[in-house]
Amino acid sequence: MARILVVDDELDVVRMVARTLEARGHTVEVARDGEAALALIARQVPELLVIDANLPRLDGAEVCRRLRADPATKALPIVMMCSAYVSLTDAQAEQGPDELVMKPFVRETLIRNVERLLKPRP
Question: Which domains does the chain have, with CATH numbers?
Fold first, then answer.
């Protein structure tokens, strides 16, 4: 299956997301802040990124902007987790994620969004 990077500073959230995705056969790597995420991505681009909007050092929106600005990561599928309402249209207008998942989220919603984004695009 896919190699997925999960970025969140809340250990409980990281564990839940990792267990959910690993149960579906995915390999999960973890970063605890935006800077660590960018460092991991620079070494090897994952097939998908699940990132929290509110992170220490560098927030999820800034990580998205930097990834979208780089030709090597511009097409990286991104699912952003947020605890405050943000419309997908607003997020995409700022070079944001492909999908938003509101916290606390339903595992099936996360799985559906991740697996939809992992399907080959026409």
Answer: 3-118 (3.40.50.2300)
